[in-house]
Amino acid sequence: MKSRNKAIIYLRILLVFLILVIAVTIVTFFWIRSNEQDKITESLAFLKVKDRNLEMMEKSFEMLYEADNDFWLYTLTYNKQYFQEYSDDINALLTTLDSLTTSLTTDSVEMLYVEDASENILKKEHISASFIHMKKLTDSLLNVAVTMDELGFGWHAQKQLRIQQSYRTRMEAQEMRLILTNKALMEDLKEIMHLLNQHVEKRNERIHHDTHGTIDKSARTLNLTSLVSLGIVVILLLLIIITIRQIIRYQKYILAARRKAEEEAAEKSRFLAYMSHELRTPLTSIVGFTEQLKHSSLDAIQEKYVSSMRASSEMLLITINDILDLSKLDSGKMKFFVAPFNPTSVIEQVLNSLRPAAEKKGLSITLNKDLDDQVVLAGDEMRLKQLLINLINNAIKYTEKGSITVTISIEPRDKMVSLKVQIADTGIGITQTHLKDVFNEFSQVHEQSAKKWIIGTGLGLPICKKIVEEQDGKIWAESLPGKGSTFSFVIPYEPSKEQIIESKPTVEGIDISIFKDKRFLIVDDTKINLVLLEAIFTKWDTKADTAKNGKEAIALISEHHYDMVVSDVNMPEMDGIELTKKIRQNPDREIAEIPVIILTANILQDEVEKFQQTGVTDYLMKPFLMIDLYQVIRKHLTGG
């Protein structure tokens, strides 16, 4: 079972780990893809963005072109609007170059060309002004010459023409300088454009290279991640398959072990039932006939022999009961019956029954009570008696001299109350080494004194421990060698409001008047048991017929009227259970309602449940005393 649980835990861990790995892989994959995709998108978007410096250079060319056009239009028309536009274009061009200067580093080559271009623009503006001035003078002289020629001032005209020619020559020189300046300016701008384009190309090439590198790196990362994830998944799947195979193998082992355990448990139950029957049946005769002898006339020696026989039979019965009780506790078949009881009365009954054994050894028994005598609790009275008898018997057994003190108290516990009992003795005590093993099965803590002390099965204290713990209680021991031991237990009970009417103890003489005019049928396959029961019923002066099995009993019931049937449970041909069924199924109502008392040596709970389902009126455990049989018969014969 532990291996199965461990395998299931491992499987769950592997599944959780697999889910986590897959989840992390997926998240990592999407994160890498998203991150690298953002980088790629950013790089590609950056490539689409036009370079600001190139934009300014394009504007510079446009403004220079517009300025030239406006300049030549002005020289032809002398329209001031064109000159104003020319001046605005030149100023805008200078402003653009200044802006370009701020975006470039001071030690770059472009910076030098920009500075030269700015100087050429200023130079161009100066030359343009001179050119306009010369153009205006030339045009003025030409006009004067034409006028003088029309008026007949030939020599004046020639003079003006020479002057005009001179200005014309100078104007052409200025025009040439202007053209050269424009050419130089254009060369500067072209060089700036070329350098900027080179920078843009290098930058784009670098971005392109980085983008390809990012894409390659992302692809490699994704491939590696995929391979690693696939490898991990494959490994985990293999581990899961191996684990599942192990679980299946373990389950097969567990099922086989379970079947074997069930078979062994069934065999154990059959063995216990058989042992119980085989031991209790002869023990019933021993106890019964010993009791009959005890009530007969015996001399001192015979009385001693009978007492020894009875003590031996009681020891054997205790051993059998211990083994069967332990078996029922281990199998979980022991049930606890809840009924009202008076704890003070229970303890006093136990002490009264055990006090003679203590006094025989010269021991005193003291009861200390810390509770109201009228307190009534709801629980299993018989199991409490079993605990007390076992623990007090142990105290008597292992105490040579001194006293035994029993202390009982009650403490509130939520809606329940805790019944605490302490049994303290002045006996031989237990060493601390052995104290921890005192509640273990078959444990003997006084092996060195085996000849001196009466050693039992070693099952009494383990049974006490199981009985206490099955009722959610606690038991423990404290001891000092040579000083004595104290055994304590606490059991929670529900308080009961019912009143307990104490039954008066049965007088030693049995009231045989209840058997007057009554007829019994005794059914048992063991002759010695029939002899014992016949002797008991003869002592009660009542008629009892006998049958060896259920078939004989059915035949007798059909011929005679019986007030009660007392039958053994295990018999050949027809057992006590089948006999009870036949009686309950009889169409004659008087026969069907005959009380049936079953005598059984098997105290397993499933047998008790079978009795109840069959319609058994009551049952009595073997071996039993005459008074036990009397009380059961009286209970169902007289209704109380």
Helix content: 55-70%
Number of helices: 16
Most strands sheet: 7 strands, mixed
Q: pLDDT under 50 segments (min length 5)?
A: 447-455, 503-508
Task: State which percent range the strand residues make up.
Answer: 5-15%
Would you report the number of β strands? 12
Radius of gyration: 61 Å
Q: First CA to last CA: what distance?
A: 51 Å
* Structure class: alpha/beta
Quick structural summary:
This protein has helices at residues 2-48, 52-77, 80-103, 109-151, 154-294, 300-331, 343-360, 381-397, 432-435, 460-470, 527-539, 550-559, 576-584, 589-592, 605-614, 626-637; strands spanning 339-341, 364-370, 377-379, 403-413, 416-425, 474-480, 484-495, 519-523, 543-547, 564-568, 596-600, 618-621. Among the domains are: 52-211; 343-495, Histidine kinase-like ATPase, C-terminal domain (Heat Shock Protein 90); 512-637, 3-Layer(aba) Sandwich (Rossmann fold).
What can you see in these coordinates?
By secondary structure, the chain is of the alpha/beta class. Among the domains are: 52-211; 343-495, Histidine kinase-like ATPase, C-terminal domain (Heat Shock Protein 90), CATH 3.30.565; 512-637, 3-Layer(aba) Sandwich (Rossmann fold), CATH 3.40.50.2300. Helix content is 66%, strand content 12%. It has 16 helices and twelve strands. The strands form two sheets. Strands 1, 2, 3, 4, 5, 6 and 7 form a seven-stranded mixed beta sheet that branches. Strand 6 and strand 7 (484-495) form a beta hairpin. Helix 5 (154-294) packs across helix 11, helix 7 packs parallel to helix 8 and helix 8 (381-397) packs antiparallel against helix 10. The longest helix has 141 residues, at 154-294.
